[in-house]
Amino acid sequence: MKIGVVTFPGSNCDSDARYASTLTGNETVQLWHKDTSLPAGLDVVILPGGFSYGDYLRTGAIARFSPIMNAVTTFANDGGLVFGICNGFQILCESGLLPGALIRNANLSFVCKDVYLRVENTSSAFTNTVKPSSVLRVPVAHGDGRFTAPQDVIDGLEANGQVLYRYTTPDGAVTKEANPNGSMNNIAGIINASGNVMGLMPHPERACEPLVGSSDGVSVFESLAVHVGLSSAVSA
Amino acid sequence: MKTYIATITVTLRRAILDVQGKAVEHALHSLHMPGFNDVRIGKHIELLLKAPDADTAKDQVEEACKKLLTNPVMEDFSIAINEQNAGVRA
User: Fold this and answer.
1) What ipTM, to 2 d.p.?
2) CATH assignment of A2-235?
3) For the domain that residue B78 is a member of, what is the CATH number?
4) How many domains is chain B built from?
5) pTM for the full model?
6) Regarding beta strands A27-32 and A2-7, do their DSSP bridges make them parallel or antiparallel, or are they unpaired?
7) Between β-strands A135-142 and A187-191, what pairing exists: parallel, antiparallel or unpaired?
8) Residue A221 is inside which H or E element, if any?
9) Going by fewer Cβ within 10 Å, which terminus of chain A is more open, N or C?
10) Smallest Cβ distance to B19: which of A99, A101, A104?
11) A141: part of which helix (H) or strand (E)?
């Protein structure tokens, strides 16, 4: 599987994302925000965390107009797998590839700590190796992570199984205290209706080695490898 | 073509809880100013543009607001257009 990681001015998790991608035996390529096309044979594009364009105006608002985003949008519309982590999630919402918006944390503070995520849908390209209702420990690090959308959009996401991850207690209970940013319905990660574009505020790429306290984040990269493997087996 | 100053006020949509506004409201109340309510914090953007008339200028700024300056999912905006140096010339 070939994974491309975009570096925007101000990205700071692109190296971690490439490192995590290689752990599951994937080929990774660095993509540059000024590129106007994607390399041939790419299976996944990752928009990494960071503070693209200094978070000026709104998080992700300027990055979404980067030259490479036209190619990423075409790739996504053609069914290509796109994974936005933290700032990448914000960019995907700004670009309209995912619904909703990520606004200032309810407590008005930057939150940097480990959180617990219950996996809500284990049939997606990003979660297929996870046992149903598993709880993962993964860090968050953001100031603008409160997922917000009109109520009918939230209802639609819930009804269609598009909420992939929810902030919970270590036991998997959805509580106000377990929600680090005030996101509606404790939503931490969502997928688009076609199932190929995912946004997640926490950082699975920072939880891929026991050395750093958790390797629960590997499941995303394993799931992608399984999904791409199955897809290529079907097409071959 | 005339030069206009556009002043854009951006606020969170009414349906979205403005936590900064709430915090400031509580601070005002604790400073014994109980008469202040419904505090809302937003952004102020100013820009200059050239346009044949004020209506065209407003249309252009509105397009910029919808495309880049605001995010309609979470924000509302209002625009005021004034001709630059209008007062001096009058």
Assistant:
1) 0.85
2) 3.40.50.880
3) 3.30.1280.10
4) 1
5) 0.94
6) parallel
7) unpaired
8) helix A218-235
9) C
10) A104
11) strand A135-142
